[in-house]
Design goal:
The protein is built from 2 helices and 3 strands. By secondary structure, it is α+β, with helices and mostly antiparallel strands. It has a domain at 23-60. The protein has a 3-stranded antiparallel β-sheet with strand order 2-1-3, covered by helices on one side. It starts with 9 loop residues before the first helix and ends with a strand.
Length: 60
């Protein structure tokens, strides 16, 4: 069988490419996971779940 491809509009494709190529603002590491975050509020929630986790804030 042939794999079905999702047809996206040009605008949607551009937005997805921008997201993929952007540098994540905050990278959080804990146990066996790595999560990219966009705000300090999200970071606060992850630190509550995994207090032993570490994070890096990019200034890009």
């Amino acid at each position: 069988m042939k794999k079905k491809e999702l047809k996206l509009s040009k605008k949607t494709t551009k937005i997805l490419n921008d997201i993929k190529s952007s540098t994540p603002k905050i990278v959080f590491h804990a146990k066996n996971i790595m999560v990219t975050l966009r705000s300090k509020e999200q970071l606060k929630q992850w630190l509550e779940r995994y207090p032993s986790g570490s994070y890096r804030i990019n200034n890009a």
